[in-house]
Design goal:
Length: 264
């Protein structure tokens, strides 16, 4: 039956695939959806070389060891660009440690995602005691893909510098305390009593009595004095304390001006 002159012909709908089912869109943004690839990269950082492993997305995705590369910024930048060119989206991760956050800032500057993992919160098997760079990198990549890793807060450069300064000062104070105790124990072993500071008098003048014995308090300015007055001599214990200035106490009193901070 022919259509009338005033009737417009309707376009025919062509069904592709199975009858009653819509065909999925295969092209999104100019590329096939099936070609979309995502990867999770685990990096075991070290001083000289970094071990890298790659885990592809999906439960059945391949997990392979990429290799060990030089830990320098130039080498890591080249390897990161090489891995990123093979995948559409890449996630990087590594354990927090003494190497700091330089690798994190490098990866972020290249436009990639990076996670710094807390080492104490990494899931581990009870009987797994073998620890190598290869196994650690593969384990990090697999756990990152499974979402089992816990990230730590990454400070900025200013906050990191201030934190390093505070920690260095705390370590120096602790070292000074330990060494002071060692010097005090050494002097006690040589039967040298360490008296407390007297009010209004310098510890050096307070330690000089009529017998010529000197019993100073262990202070940083007194270390030079200890080197002068402790000498090696023959005796029962091989060490004795002598004062070369016992006959000249006035010289010690004149030198008190150099130790004004010792005055109570």
């Amino acid at each position: 039956m022919s259509a009338s002159a005033g009737e417009v012909a309707r376009p025919t709908l062509r069904v592709r695939g199975l009858l009653g089912r819509a065909e999925p869109i295969l092209i999104t943004g100019g590329r096939a959806v099936a070609d979309y690839r995502e990867a999770f990269v685990g990096i075991d950082v070290a001083k000289l070389k970094n071990a890298i492993a790659i885990a592809e997305v999906g439960r059945e995705g391949e997990v392979r060891f990429f290799g060990e590369v030089d830990a320098s910024a130039t080498s890591m930048r080249r390897v990161i660009g090489r891995i990123a060119s093979r995948f559409d989206h890449v996630h990087f991760c590594y354990e927090a440690g003494p190497t700091g956050y330089g690798l994190y800032r490098l990866i972020r500057s290249l436009g990639q995602e990076c996670t710094v993992v807390a080492p104490s919160l990494i899931p581990r098997k009870p009987g797994d005691r073998v620890k190598t760079n290869r196994r650690d990198a593969i384990s990090l990549a697999r756990l990152l893909r499974a979402g089992e890793l816990t990230a730590v807060w990454v400070p900025d450069e200013g906050h990191e510098s201030m934190r390093a300064l505070v920690r260095a000062r705390a370590a120096a104070v602790e070292t000074l305390r330990v060494h002071r105790q060692q010097v005090g124990a050494f002097m006690l072993k040589q039967a040298v009593a360490i008296r407390a500071r007297r009010a209004g008098r310098c510890v050096i003048c307070a330690g000089i009595d009529n017998s010529g014995s000197i019993t100073p308090r262990i202070r940083s300015p007194s270390r030079r004095w200890l080197r002068r007055c402790v000498s090696r001599k023959n005796g029962s214990n091989g060490w004795s304390v002598q004062s070369k200035s016992s006959s000249r106490p006035g010289r010690w009193r004149r030198s008190c001006g150099r130790f004004r901070h010792c005055v109570g």
